[in-house]
């Protein structure tokens, strides 16, 4: 089976990843780059698919996909998931200048 990657527009992609929950397909290289750019920018990686009405999918990319394709960034992913689970008004951070971890 092959798919067309909506990012690079490659027609016959055989090494692809399907995002669980929304079932959008991307070539491994494009999705790995998307995950890395988002995590390095301190953003959780969401499905980058856009529909005909220019609406983004916003399905969070599953942890096992991050682990399989960008495992060097798994710690950042876990940290951002924990941080995102805390409502902004309830977030408090470690006062140490070199630490950015939330505390409860």
UniProtKB/TrEMBL annotation:
SUPFAM superfamilies: RING/U-box. SMART domains: RING. Keywords: Metal-binding, Zinc, Zinc-finger. The keyword S-adenosyl-L-methionine does not apply. The keyword Metal-binding applies. One of its GO terms (molecular function) is ubiquitin-protein transferase activity. One of its GO terms (biological process) is protein ubiquitination. It holds the Pfam family zf-C3HC4. Residues 5-48 form the RING-type domain. InterPro entries: E3_UB_ligase_RBR, Znf_C3HC4_RING-type, Znf_RING, Znf_RING/FYVE/PHD, Znf_RING_CS. It comes from the Eukaryota. Belongs to the RBR family. Ariadne subfamily. Might act as an E3 ubiquitin-protein ligase, or as part of E3 complex, which accepts ubiquitin from specific E2 ubiquitin-conjugating enzymes and then transfers it to substrates. This is RING-type domain-containing protein. It comes from Thalictrum thalictroides (Rue-anemone). The lineage of its organism: Eukaryota, Viridiplantae, Streptophyta, Embryophyta, Tracheophyta.
């Amino acid at each position: 089976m092959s798919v067309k990657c909506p990012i690079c527009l490659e027609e016959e992609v055989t090494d692809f990843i399907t995002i669980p929950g929304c079932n959008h397909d991307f070539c491994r290289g494009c999705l790995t780059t998307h995950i890395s750019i988002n995590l390095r920018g301190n953003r959780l990686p969401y499905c980058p698919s856009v529909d005909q009405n220019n609406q983004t999918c916003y399905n969070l990319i599953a942890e096992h996909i991050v682990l399989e394709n960008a495992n060097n960034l798994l710690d950042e992913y876990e940290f951002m998931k924990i941080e995102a689970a805390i409502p902004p008004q309830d977030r408090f951070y470690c006062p140490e200048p070199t630490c950015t971890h939330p505390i409860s």
